[in-house]
## 1
Amino acid sequence: MSGLQSPAAPLEGQLWSIEVVLEDLEATARFAADLAGLLRPGALLVLTGGLGAGKTTFTQSLGGALGVSGMISSPTFILSRIHRAQGLGPDLVHVDAYRTDPEGLESLDLSSTMADSVTVVEWGRGMVEAALVGTAGSWLDLELIRDSQAEATPQDSPGNAGIITDFSETEADLLGSRRRAVLRGYGPAWVQPPQL
């Protein structure tokens, strides 16, 4: 899937959908903390969204709320990282399925860590659910969508092929841009939508 394409349509069997507007990084962190409070060992969270939608940023906030160790960064070239719990909570397994296929994911042996971990898979929609929790299993799908207005910059305007020479961070960069988060529930563990 290219970052220029739209994410795949929601999978069949969706039980509910909740949409939340995340105004900035603080709102994203609060949403991740609320969600972390609901996730138990064995939970699967599939993250969907284009390049730069905030999947890894969300996972960093989720990991912080779960209290796991280690810096959470994009697992693009490593494919999978395990962040160990610092207390009694579950480990966090962070996976990037962008550059792999079902056979490549199978070689990661994620099923061996599922029972004791919260597993977060970026770019995994339609590829990991049945493999990790079975066709009758439960999972959450979180789609992050950047606000189109937040993405538009003066350099993007038609006829402006200007060269960017100022790479300093703006206040918007530091606070994070606005996103929509669409959380979808699947399977018997997620029959009812959570109170977020």
## 2
Amino acid sequence: MRRRIEQQQAKSEVIIAWVQAAAVVFFAVVYAISPKALPPKTRFEAVPWTLAIYAGFTSMRLVLAYHGRLSDRFVTFSTVIDVTVLIVTIWSFHLQYQAPPALYLKAPTLMYVFIVIALRTLRFEPATY
């Protein structure tokens, strides 16, 4: 029974990695076609860098998932990275749009946290929820 659960979790990790990869592509396309609201002298744009780094991390996670080499520590680390990237990206909106910091609490993008939670429920271990 334990082996079957581990096999199911391995399959779930591949699904999770593909959903994350699709999300990165979706957000990159949306960012590319959306009008930018950056001040004229801005040298650093956080969103493209964040998406690029996260795309690399997600690619590495996908390869490890296909090879069945995702350790419990890496899965926990990945969960922390997922939530951190999401929260930092949402937080950076008020900088980009020169709005009060309360904007990120009002924005519907905060609901993306629930997507991360839903993806983590594909595992059968409460520690990764």
## 3
Amino acid sequence: MSPSFFEIVQLNNGDYALRRIDDDSAPLVRISFSNEARDMLDDKEMSVAKAMIAAGIEAVGSVTHDIDWEDDELDVSDAQPAYTLH
């Protein structure tokens, strides 16, 4: 299987999206900022969107690391993260 390459783009409606470079289907992730948030970010929406996507990828990596994908019945106590979500 060939590796996938991803890009972060700004959509026509102002949202940001993560998508595969070679695929025009629906984005994998879409980030939408309210007008109030856009005002507070002072034209730094792309930087914040990149940081949010990077944090999401890191979180998925740590969560999937703890999951035994071969086990049909996941023990809920084993799936508890080693951090507190705020």
